[in-house]
Amino acid sequence: MVWFWLIISASLNAFGEYFSKLWADSPFAMTAILAIGSYTLGSIAWLPALKAKNILGVTGVMWLILGLIATIALSAIVFKERLTIQQWVGVALGFLSVFLLSNH
């Protein structure tokens, strides 16, 4: 059940990132409201995920990696942004950290 809530929370956070980027490009009140709403709902969905796993360090890292994947996908697919080699190494190390933290 923890994965369900983590995916919901990270997805809502990614929507927040999307609307934040739209707002940064063209600041309209509606995009700011959508960003804040997405972040808020993502935080609410985080609570059952933490309760299900109840290990903040592991659950937090899992959430960060899911959010990282969603944000990178959005930036690459929607906004045509690209990562440097150094940034890809950071992503790979993030995945390694999730594996090491959740493998107990």
Q: Your description of this structure?
A:
The structure is a single chain. This protein has 104 residues and is an all-alpha fold. The chain is 86% helix and 0% strand. The longest helix is centred in the middle third of the chain and has 25 residues, at 29-53. The two termini are 18 Å apart.
What gyration radius follows from the Cα positions, in whole Å? 15 Å
- The count of β-strands is 0
Strand percentage: under 5%
Task: List SSEs in N-to-C order.
Answer: HHHH
Alpha-beta classification: mainly alpha
What is the typical, i.e. mean, pLDDT? Answer: 89
Overall outline: flat
Largest sheet: none
Number of helices: 4
Ends apart, CA distance between termini: 18 Å
Helix proportion = over 70%
Low-confidence stretches: none
Question: What key phrases describe this protein's structure?
Answer:
104 residues
SSE map:
Elements: H1 2-25, H2 29-53, H3 56-77, H4 85-102
Helix pairs in contact: 1-2, 1-3, 2-3, 3-4
Structure summary:
This protein has 104 residues and is mostly helical.
